Amino acid sequence: xxxxxxxxxxxxxxxxxxxxxxxxxxxxxxxxxxxxxxxxxxxxxxxxxxxxxxxxxxxxxxxxxxxxxxxxxxxxxxxxxxxxxxxxxxxxxxxxxxxxxxxxxxxxxxxxxxxxxxxxxxxxxxxxxxxxxxxxxxxxxxxxxxxxxxxxxxxxxxxxxxxxxxxxxxxxxxxxxxxxxxxxxxxxxxxxxxxxxxxxxxxxxxxxxxxxxxxxxxxxxxxxxxxxxxxxxxxxxxxxxxxxxxxxxxxxxxxxxxxxxxxxxxxxxxxxxxxxxxxxxxxxxxxxxxxxxxxxxxxxxxxxxxxxxxxxxxxxxxxxxxxxxxxxxxxxxxxxxxxxxxxxxxxxxxxxxxxxxxxxxxxxxxxxxxxxxxxxxxxxxxxxxxxxxxxxxxxxxxxxxxxxxxxxxxxxxxxxxxxxxxxxxxxxxxxxxxxxxxxxxxxxxxxxxxxxxxxxxxxxxxxxxxxxxxxxxxxxxxxxxxxxxxxxxxxxxxxxxxxxxxxxxxxxxxxxxxxxxxxxxxxxxxxxxxxxxxxxxxxxxxxxxxxxxxxxxxxxxxxxxxxxxxxxxxxxxxxxxxxxxxxxxxxxxxxxxxxxxxxxxxxxxxxxxxxxxxxxxxxxxxxxxxxxxxxxxxxxxxxxxxxxxxxxxxxxxxxxxxxxxxxxxxxxxxxxxxxxxxxxxxxxxxxxxxxxxxxxxxxxxxxxxxxxxxxxxxxxxxxxxxxxxxxxxxxxxxxxxxx
Length: 739
Description:
alpha/beta; 5 domains
């Protein structure tokens, strides 16, 4: 009988369905195999993934596969992709893209290198005619197989000498794949670190967690900053590796991978693999291959590393599990925590969530006994928490200080400089000035696509939009009235850097934000330099607020703690508490005591008072009853639907039609068990991005298969209707940011 396959093809969402193709003789196909197929008008070659293989008589007019790749995601990968499609309102192929780097195109092809080896182990049989040939053979006898370039460099002979020995049969030249291992792994693998003795609290946590390995469940490790959670991680990794299994460790920021990779490579060498968006396509492809072959059994990376094809998964660790970076903002809008939970349940592993400031959802589940729980309530070696000093910015401005650095913080920085100790300063806004305005006519330079004020960036002398990436040259006069003196208002990291250099001439400052880390290895270089004591101050945005561990950092400054506190997001207090707690926790992590200066217009705010003491449990208990009374997570789930159109009127009318469709279907008998509460349409906090209006609705519901299926049905109908063709819609279950 003739063989056929069903294939998920790379196509638009409305055309997302399995397509049948015949299998030419000699093609080796199986579920999960990557293929090329003819598709659409002109039978263009399209990527696809095999969903099923079957035999049947009588199927005619079916197109044939064009080619079959050696690469396969297997049946487990297909099952995971189906889970992603059903949960995150995306096409099946979009889900497959997450599971393999092979769709990345150019740059992902293997690189091969020539190696030279002796053709006989009996050196007496090899009779070179010249001293140069003898030099080559002696080097190979001593060193074994080496790369051709290494051989030429160390023997100083020409290629003709080497190829003459090949012709004589003395040596062989073979092609071998050269693995493009990231520099941070190669360099860190040279370090050695073995001491990992646990204190009683850490040992208790380790015992509680290791007892649940293989359960397919989830466990939360709560520990104050500096309590030594990483020591517990290492002991767990040792246990899992000794059992012949593999580990995935997820981190919220690329900047954190450097220190973590350095530490773990000290224990496990090149058994460690690194996966994040900062790698080249070739590096990512080769790391993926090392993982798949089982050469690397400890995978460290950011969000996408949760899909790593490890052999025999035993443990997934998500550090700083509350961070928004674990949730994708692009379709598929998956959360790494949910993918990890699916994987450990299906592969009989364990998911360990860890943080000094867990998400309310995770802590609620832990307290309810739904997931396991362990805690570390004291810093490692009984080190004290940093002393927190507060500055009332209102009084500071009233007294005449308009700089971003208060007088108290400047005094503390000066003391650190005198003692040769280092400082970390946090400013959650990049660029120089957040807006440029005319003092005479009050004109503000705004993005023509988004309507928001443009930010001045000193490095290129341009005004930038941080939403659509629009840029324009810095004006020398007001375009409205011609006034030549413009006011540079608002503060970003670049302006703070200028002010610090004015206050402390000659000091060395390293700035770490999206502008300064655009180079491939720039993050690692900045952190290495700071760790080596080559700078006095590390100034940066959120990428410096968590996970970093520098023994000589004794002072942390939060330049404005109010950035998130008064936003309309129901998680505003939770995010502010986490941010202040995490960044102040960077100080005093070794034998030296630490202190933190928090600058705010609300020094007595209850959220900040809890954060100063790192009292997460007190903060949680204070806030959870309010969440319950307002019916917000963890007591319900929230679905955010965003409607994007050329005009605000179209965006609002499409949102209204979506709500009408929900209301109509809820009236049907089979749907009356579905409970939903819809918050009426409103413009998003930034109502226009890239020239298009954005309107959102929020739906309070229960995130169960029944609800998702109901919303998927409405979504599928909605995007197929003619009147909605000019509107794009995104559906996001449990967004971490309310637009």
